[in-house]
Amino acid sequence: MPISRAAAAAAPVLSVVTVLLAVWYFAAVMLNSAWTLDRAERAEQAVGALELVADTLSQDRPRLPAPHQVAAEIWKTTVQKKITSKRSLVFHAWVTLSATLLGFAFGTALGVLLAVAIVHDRATDLSVMPWVIASQTIPILALAPMIIVVLNAAGISGLVPKAVISAYLSFFPVTVGMVAGFRSPAVHDIDLMKTYNANKTQVFWKLRLPASTPFLFPSLKVGIAASLVGAIVGELPTGAVAGLGARLLAGSYYGQTIQIWSALVVAALLAATLVSLIGSIERVVLARTGRAA
Amino acid sequence: MSGAPVIDARSLGLTYQTGDGPVLALQDVTLEVAKGEFVSFIGPSGCGKTTLLRVIADLEQPTSGEIRVNGMSPEAARRARAYGYVFQAAGLYPWRTIEKNVRLPLEIMSYSREEQAARVRRVLELVDLSGFERKFPWQLSGGMQQRASIARALAFDADILLMDEPFGALDEIVRDRLNEELLGLWDSTAKTIVFVTHSIPEAVFLSTKIVVMSPRPGRITDVIDSPLPRDRPLGIRDSAEFLKVAQRLREGLRAGDGGAD
């Protein structure tokens, strides 16, 4: 019974969403009431409790916009705007998404190649692995402007520098996960290959790679979320022209909190969609290879 | 049973270097296995029976002595794909169906597609698993998984079958049936089988030659040439001859162990 199963799966998610919305509304009232009370005091007016709540949830530039204000803003800037418009969130989301996907592809390819090298070559394991880990201890916010400046000086601008930052963040979980995955076969699995006199290439394609799939997908999920963060961070130092990062930056320049929050929510929805897309592929692949997800 | 021995070990020794000093896993092991024999290694844990099997398979290297398999070094024999190895755990790859698991060695050894299909069909029939080609390992019982693992070892043309306690984890009834089937396979394929076990009835029922081993250091204490006929129904286990061999085996094991355990 697919309907009841879907409902059963949705129920916990929905209850968490409900709690979050309640907390969000409560916080909006608390954070925005100072401004309302301040203005009322200057006008020497008394404010009733209901008026106070109503006002805190409908300010133009609230400290914390209420969920329905964000929802209305998203509706206005997605459905009611042409997607070619500079004010369309769909346009900005697409700019960020394209950099995310390109960076994710770079990062995954790099991550898998590094893992293959690390597993097959002891020298690489000893020399490269520490650098792989060190690379992630540098704050990406410090590194991102330099990547963009350096690539720009080399004549590369636009999508690619952002994708490079995305790749920088996303290769790491893939490398770590795939190293664990390639090393997951048990001793007797490898001994079996040895009794067949299999070469390293055969051991890789027939044993290490298929054994690593349960490790691949969790890595990809972390990797694609990191890619999105990388793309957004990559948009911040470019002077904010297009993309969700640009919307965040422009919003904070002009104190447009509703704009900031709607960009944030869209980024979160985008990440959730990408992660669940990988989850769907994971289920199909694992089911086809005899392992229920 | 004539001609050069299939396995010929002379004064074989293997010492592991561990943090607590050297451990003598095998000492002065001398053994000949003729073509077509069914040889069992039996002994308590730590007696080196699995180590000896792994030395034959070139999965461990002896530190002294000499060993020839099919007249060559174990490494050359392994490279020539002289043996099929059945591990204690069935060790089927969980992402492959039964059919594809059996096909694995054939893929690695570059058999043609038609040849692969024909051989898979034949060995699955041999171990009575026809109809389970498309199942994944977890869909099969432990006994069926072990049969698939034997089929995998039989799929290519190795004339030696090395088996490391293949039925150790199975219940008595399944084990009895698989023992009977294994004897049938041995009879029909004319392979040389080396079989590691810790079960006395299993060793006596299956073997033409029983090698009794004892631990600390791992060594051979007795070699029994079985007086039982080649054709053995399960009922033979109640015969006087069977019980006599089992008795000698039990005493050998007790003596070798020095009453330590």
Estimated helix fraction of chain B: 25-40%
Give the mean pLDDT of chain A.
Answer: 89
Report the C-alpha radius of gyration of chain A, rounded.
Answer: 24 Å
Which strands sit side by side, in order, in the main sheet of chain B? 5-6-7-3-8-9
The helix content of chain A is: over 70%
Number of helical segments with 4 or more residues of chain B = 8
Major beta sheet summary of chain A? none
Overall 3D form of chain A: elongated
Give the overall form of chain B.
globular
Summarize the structure.
Chain A is mostly helical and 293 residues long. Chain A has helices spanning 2-42, 49-56, 67-78, 89-120, 122-135, 140-153, 159-182, 187-195, 200-235, 244-253, 257-288.
Please describe what this structure looks like.
With 293 residues, chain A is mainly alpha-helical. In chain A, 79% of the residues lie in helices and 0% in strands. Chain A is built from eleven helices and no strands. The radius of gyration of chain A is 24 Å and the shape is elongated. The model of chain A has no long low-confidence stretch (mean pLDDT 89). Chain B is of the alpha/beta class and 261 residues long. The radius of gyration of chain B is 18 Å and the shape is globular. The termini of chain B are far apart. Chain B is built from eight helices and nine strands. The relative contact order of chain B is 0.18. Classes of the chains: A mainly alpha (293), B alpha/beta (261). At the A-B interface, helix 8 and helix 9 of A face strand 5 and helix 3 of B.
